[in-house]
Design goal:
By secondary structure, the chain is mainly α. It is built from seven helices and three strands; from the N terminus they run H-H-E-H-E-H-H-E-H-H. The chain is globular and about 40 Å long.
Amino acid sequence: IKEMNRLGILVDVSHLSDPGFWDVVELSTQPIIASHSNSRAVCNHRRNLTDDQIKALAKNGGVMGMNFAAAFVKEDGKPKLDDLLNHIDHIVELVGPEHVGLGSDFDGIGAAPEELTDASTMPLITDGLCKRGYSDEHIRLILGGNYFRVFKEVWG
């Protein structure tokens, strides 16, 4: 991890075990990402992050990208867009909008929220965030601004 930080390699914790996550947080001096992970408090999937992990990632300056994989969004495996937006709401309430992004994983999943069939349906997320009262600035952060901040910090 220290060598990755030195070389400007962005560390992604999405496929790590819980102990592995904590090892990275302890060692990394650069922001880390969970490129495609959701909230375990909203959907109890072992690859989703706990609230304590989300807080640690935020304290590190990192970003977590919402995974659209059905089993990561809703435990019954039949999510709708609102279920994905519930993850965003939870994380924003926990650590603020500066630590949330999108990490659809469209190329690696079999099923996504019903309305999100492919990349052409992504504007539905923007619409949903607007309907939930998110400001334009917060929506810009969630739709890519947070990742740009981390990329600039890690890559210079």
